[in-house]
Amino acid sequence: MRNAHKALLLGLVVALSGGVALAQVDFSRYVALGDSLTAGVVSNGSDQTYQKNSYPALIARQAGVSGFQQPLVSAPGLPPLLELVALNVTSQGVSPVIRVKSGLGAPLNPTLATPYNNLGVDGFDTNDVLTRTGDINNFAQHLADYAAGRSGKAPAFADLVLRFPVFPGTETPATALAQALALQPTFLTVWIGSNDVLGAALTGVAVDGVTMTSKLDFQVRYTTLIGALRQARPSTPIVVGNIVDVEAIPFVTTIKPYIVNPSTGTHIPLIGEAGPLTEQDHLTLLASSLLAQGIGIPVAAGGTGLPLPEGSVDAEGLHAGVILRAGEIAAIKARIVDLNDVINGVAAQFDAKVVDFHTFFNDLLANGMVFGGVKLTPAFLTGGIFSYDGVHPQAIGYAVVAREWISTINASLGAKLPDIDLRPFLTGEGGGAATTVMAASAVFSQQASVAMVKAYAPYALTDRIQRSTRVIRRHIAHEVRGPIEPPTP
Q: What's the structural domain count of the chain?
């Protein structure tokens, strides 16, 4: 009787807690769905050095999974990674110069007979996971289209990642969702949604239905995705990640909307096409090559007086800009909150667990994290977390991300995955360490700027971010000649 009573109590606990949550977690057929963050993109490209430390690969390694397959790419990556090519010393300090590496990588295992376990596809949004298919035979053409600015990353990297045929003998191309299910996963992670809002930050334009997915559309797509996974795999644990706050990524927050008069310490507003910037406005990293030419800097401060481009829409289309006004930032942040509400609601509906990266990265921004006496933060170049594009983590950043996945998996599913040792990543053995230079004075080449926009906002025109002028920016310390009058818009 006593044993029967214990069995009854145990059954009630399982029923109340959810059978998936307390069952033994089987990682043997682990499958990851997502976008570039899942693919392990670093500095705007895929390279096996970093792919091998993508967060799904790290989770699989900690779980002792053998044969975890990823679509590996040789150096210098696809597309070629951004690199730091110079540390120019000026009277203002050290100015890093970032550009696209020369050469082109190649797929290393494109003829794998089965779908990859890591189905993260660079450039994918939520709709792409449900609808887009690929064929490696079309990869070269689609990559050429991307390189020429005719498309974003999604078509080419769908070809690279999504098997066709899915298995030998099949004739129908399949989506990422279908390929995930074809592997009959025993454990699933899903991190998708960043590209449903990232276009707004990259172009400097927050347009509903163009650079940002509407909440209603996202609700339908995300419900379809997680619902299909749960229907097909009723007992498989599903863990999802939510969307990081736009103000937690250094692409948006590194360059200040002003310069400083060194003799007085006062802030001199930079100039946009809609007038002077306020201190609530943001400049993206794409502004750096223009600022280096004196564009956006008042004449009295040693600049050209020409304005920085605002993102805009006209009869020609959507023109990418480098300014996010306070209202645009507020709109993007509000949409991220909306989409995260959807993620939380759908996860609860289908018994999926949520890794709260929105809160995690905001906490990193506010407090950083200390490991081995080293403080890691989201700060560009100096913080260690993010790579040269200011959007994707570098190797240590993915290790930090993987630790957060593992923490949630262990706490919510009763798993016992060992934590990840960050020491190899801090010393560079894990694929790169922090760069300690003056981040705010970094200069993106215009080629790098265009590559970033076209990767995730292929519909945007980049004519206004490719301006050039013969006037070279002079040092403010030698050029301020008196009070700075507000420029005329």
A: 1
- Each residue's pLDDT tens digit, 140-156: 999 999 988 889 999 99
State the Cα–Cα distance between residues 3 and 102, nearest whole angstrom: 69
List CB contacts of 76: < 8 A, sequence separation 6 or more: 45, 47, 101, 102, 103, 104, 105
pTM of the shown model: 0.88
> Alpha-carbon distance 428 to 420, whole Å?
15
CATH code assigned at 36: 3.40.50.1110
Q: Has residue 20 been placed in a domain?
A: no
With residues binned 3-state (H G I as helix, E B as strand, rest as coil), the percentages for the chain, rounded to 5, are 40, 15, 45
Give the pair of three-digit tokens for residue 462. 């980049």
pLDDT value at 473 more than 50: no
The angle formed by the CA atoms of residues 155, 100 and 102, to the nearest 5 degrees, is 95
Q: Give all strands of the β-sheet with 443-444 in edge-to-edge order.
A: 82-90, 93-100, 443-444
| Residue among 201, 230, 155 nearest 452 (CA) | 201
∠ at Cα 272 (472, 146), nearest 5°? 80
> H/E/C letters for each residue in 288-324?
HHHHCCCCCCCHHHCCCCCCECECEEECCEEECCCEE
Domain hosting 394: range is 26-81+108-254+327-438
Tokens representing 264?
């007085």
CA-CA-CA-CA torsion for 179, 358, 58, 113, nearest 10 degrees?
10
